[in-house]
TrEMBL record:
Nucleotide-binding found in the keyword field: yes
Protein name, UniProt field: Phosphate ABC transporter ATP-binding protein, PhoT family
SMART domains: AAA
Domain ABC transporter, first and last residues per copy: 2-226
InterPro entries tied to this protein: AAA+_ATPase, ABC_transporter-like_ATP-bd, ABC_transporter-like_CS, P-loop_NTPase, PstB-like
A Pfam family this chain is assigned to: ABC_tran
Cellular component GO terms held in the UniProt record: membrane
Highest taxon of source: Bacteria
GO molecular function, a single term: phosphate transmembrane transporter activity
Keywords noted in UniProt: ATP-binding, Nucleotide-binding, Transport
Length: 228
């Protein structure tokens, strides 16, 4: 689905990786190792200084930025909703492309397991967990094939974080989504991931199936990181 070939950018050195359809690929590793920078290359928030990125077999810059970002949605750590109601936020993106249909919000609220009566609520009057669900629903409103998640639950308490994880996993099954997620919470790497990419000093130090690579790390760096 997505392939990087010898990509370098800023702190990132010679990154090669692949993410298959319906995989949950997790980028984890120490602070400053380049996880977020790597994530932002997936939907062209930044472009490589060297190397190439392919999306569905084509060079990523063959796609228009708008088209690419509809297909490859991004969810950040903080909800970044704009002032207005839940409905205003959900319909904004699809309205720009004329694809919004009245009633679409019902399905979106269901996907993220929010009650329908929140539809007209001002987003400022929602809890942090509810706001993050609205953000996710807004990203899903564009019908993406890939979701990029930058520490999507780190601002939430443990119970809410696990509820959002369940919503995300169900979306993979229901909609066949592919996900690339940055997190530094090892319990979340274990619960969520199918493929792990351990980052260290701007490189992918080790890649492997999850949870296997956490139980049998191959490199000293990953061993030391896991021992904390
Ligand atoms: N274009 C650039 N040129 C040089 N350095 C950069 C550039 N872009 C980012 N950096 C630096 O690279 C480092 C890696 O940043 P990044 O945010 O990707 O790490 P991270 O692993 O996501 O960290 P954290 O877990 O703390 O969020 C940071 O020190 C950042 O300031």
């Amino acid at each position: 689905m997505i392939e990087f070939k010898n990509v370098s950018y800023g702190p990132l050195k010679n990154i090669s990786l692949s993410v298959d359809k319906q995989e949950i690929a997790i980028l984890f590793g120490p602070s400053g190792s380049g996880k977020s920078t790597l994530l932002y290359l997936f939907n062209r928030l930044i472009d490589p200084e060297q190397g190439e990125i392919f999306y569905k077999g084509k060079p990523i810059d063959d796609f228009s930025i708008t088209g690419l970002r509809q297909n490859v949605g991004l969810l950040l750590q903080s909800p970044n909703l704009f002032p207005g109601s839940v409905l205003d936020n959900l319909k904004y993106g699809p309205s720009l492309t004329g694809s919004w249909k009245e009633g679409d919000e019902k399905r979106l609220l269901e996907y993220v397991q929010l009650p329908q009566d929140l539809r007209d609520r001002d987003v400022d009057h929602l809890s942090g967990g509810q706001q993050q669900r609205v953000s996710l629903a807004r990203t899903l409103a564009n019908e993406p094939e890939v979701l990029l998640l930058d520490e999507p639950t780190s601002a939430l308490d443990n119970n809410t974080a696990e509820e959002i994880e369940i919503v995300l996993k169900e979306l993979i099954e229901e909609k066949g989504l592919t996900m690339v997620m940055v997190t530094h919470q090892l319990d979340q790497v274990r619960r969520m991931g199918t493929k792990g990419m351990f980052m260290n000093e701007g490189t992918i130090q080790e890649t492997g199936g999850l949870p296997g690579m956490l139980d049998n790390p191959e490199t000293l760096e990953l061993k030391e990181y896991l021992e904390g």
